[in-house]
Hints:
FAD/NAD(P)-binding domain, globular
Amino acid sequence: MNIQWNQKTIPVISDSEVAVIGAGPGGLGAAVMAGRRGRKVALFEGSGRPGGAAALCEVSPFMLSGDTEKFFDAPVFTGWLERIISYLPDGLQQKQAAAECKDSSGRLITPAIAALAAEDMLLEAGVKLFYHFRLVDVILSDDKEKIDYAVLHSKGGFAAARAQVFIDSSGDGDLAALAGCPFEYGDEMGGCQPMTTCFDMGDAEVLGGDVRCQEFQEVSQSCFAQAVRDGKLTSPRENLLCFNAHDRHAVHFNTTRIIGLDATDSLMRSEAEITGRQQIREYIKFLREYMPGFERSTLRTFGDAGVRESRRICGRSYLTRDDVNRCCRFPDGIARCNYGIDIHNPRGKGTEVTYFKPEDYYEIPFASLVPQKITNLLIGSRCISGDVAAHSSFRVMPTVCSIGQAAGVGASLAVENSLQASDVDGSTVRRELNIMGAQLD
Length: 441
């Protein structure tokens, strides 16, 4: 079948019940849950692998949302983490599996393994995968209330995908924006949290054997401060942020800071990649010159520039800083989160960080996944409806998995009951999530 678009005749390559745009943590959650419900699901991803920031941006570890004993984000995230661990060699597998929920050593990520584990889950759920297909446009219904087709581009040219329900798991709200959904961007001055290019250094002798130990922290922060005073580092951070890696001779760095660039602007996104890698070059020299144990260290890998914040799609409900601080619960709550407010300064140094007690959490209402416009669209990524502070909390990958899985269940209920996605009852989504293992009650 062919359709007309932009004075071109293009093929329809997919006709599904649920189409998911983006294979990051949200897309993984959405596609897997819809697939497990027996829906015909198509997943479109611009790169060649699933996993989003875990697979493409070198981000590690997964940030914690959970109490001292268990993660709040089940079943997709916990299943993903278990599958990641299963790819490790026996000794390391046992060590990571035995780590407590609050211990970051149990949440370390190897990008290639994260991609394999995500793909395992998608294939097992019966999801049809379309890699190297990038969203470029939408075709709306005559009344402009529904998406009839998503227009995609690949090496073979333009193509279209049709579905009963679409899920935007692009992270940046690309599908919703193209469809004309209203959105917010940035803080009161229009600034978004900075992007970061993460990287790993190997062949290092880590002081104390663990970057979390007091000896390493004191020495590394002192060396960082001295290098800044010496003019050797231009990254506008106030400290050196790093984490352990699976290899005891490797360290993961999440410490570049790319400010003032819009992740939804292609030219700025390109500039961000260059800026992040220039900062990596500085850090390589800094580590070898200033940091004990890193004299012969080597750059092992780096990722694409990771995006913390861009568009926030306006929804039927709007989550706020006050909702987060008051640990609000909702009848249509579809995810729990207790990762604190974490705002990296859009304009330079400084990070606002708050923390929850382990037993406290707030809920994310399903209505925040339902855009104000377009009746067959749900948001299944970090760009749901909320203010800057709330977004800085729920943007982390485990919670985004849970947001995505709620969108997948909501889309499935729409198909199963011949409803528009916008008419699905959020309390029913919550009930079905519990049946499928989400542990919300």
